[in-house]
């Protein structure tokens, strides 16, 4: 089912991206509508898959995850069996916040959150013991300049 998104839907989505914990009354007021139509639109967008589950964004540093590494992976393996093992390894590691398969010289990039360099090394050792990779480069983020989950709608 294809969901047509109009201007009011976009305003609702922008509000939800800013703070999904707002009441329906607050959202309706901010987007210039009433509560029932806003609720119906949210329900329809959820049913159409426009929105995923509601979550809470945690502060990683306040919870002891001070180090953010971007891990560049090159592999010489591209068969289905290796890809399945690699996917399994990533899905079973909560340190991996994001994983992307890339076009170009680098095959994959991971965003990994850990407490420190020693914790990253433990992650790295576990990963390479489970799947064969040709080359791994880890880049430590010195400062997070911008991070958002909001789409530019």
Structure, described:
By secondary structure, this protein is of the alpha+beta class. It has two domains: 7-47, Arc Repressor Mutant, subunit A, CATH 1.10.10; 61-140, 2-Layer Sandwich (Alpha-Beta Plaits). Helix content is 39%, strand content 18%. The chain has five helices and four strands; from the N terminus they run αααβαββαβ. The chain has helices at residues 7-18, 24-31, 35-47, 80-91, 117-130, and strands spanning 67-74, 96-101, 108-114, 135-140. The protein has a four-stranded antiparallel sheet. Helix 1 (7-18) packs across helix 2 and helix 2 (24-31) packs across helix 3. The longest helix has 14 residues, at 117-130. The radius of gyration is 20 Å and the shape is elongated.
Mean pLDDT: 96
Q: Assign the CATH topology of the largest domain.
A: Alpha-Beta Plaits
Describe the oligomeric state of these chains in a short phrase.
Answer: single chain
Give the CATH superfamily of the largest domain: Lrp/AsnC effector binding domain/regulation of amino acid metabolism (RAM) domain
Secondary-structure arrangement, i.e. CATH architecture of the largest domain: 2-Layer Sandwich
Question: What is the 3D shape?
Answer: elongated
Organism: Lutimaribacter saemankumensis
Protein name: Lrp/AsnC family transcriptional regulator
GO molecular function: sequence-specific DNA binding
InterPro entries: ArsR-like_HTH (IPR011991), AsnC-type_HTH_dom (IPR000485), Dimeric_a/b-barrel (IPR011008), Tscrpt_reg_AsnC-like (IPR019888), Tscrpt_reg_AsnC/Lrp_C (IPR019887), Tscrpt_reg_HTH_AsnC-type_CS (IPR019885), WH-like_DNA-bd_sf (IPR036388), WH_DNA-bd_sf (IPR036390)
């Amino acid at each position: 089912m294809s969901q047509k998104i109009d201007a009011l839907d976009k305003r609702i989505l922008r509000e939800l991206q800013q703070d999904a914990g707002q009441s329906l009354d607050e959202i309706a007021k901010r987007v210039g509508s009433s509560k029932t139509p806003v609720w119906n639109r949210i329900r329809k967008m959820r049913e159409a898959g426009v929105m995923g589950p509601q979550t809470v964004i945690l502060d990683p540093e306040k919870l002891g995850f001070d180090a953010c590494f971007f891990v560049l992976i090159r592999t010489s393996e591209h068969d289905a069996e290796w890809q399945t093992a690699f996917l399994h390894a990533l899905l079973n590691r909560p340190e991996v916040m994001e994983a992307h398969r890339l076009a170009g010289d680098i095959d994959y990039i991971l965003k990994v959150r850990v407490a420190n360099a020693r914790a990253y090394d433990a992650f790295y050792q576990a990963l390479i013991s489970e799947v064969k990779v040709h080359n791994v480069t880890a880049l430590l983020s010195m400062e997070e300049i911008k991070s958002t989950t909001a789409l530019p709608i």
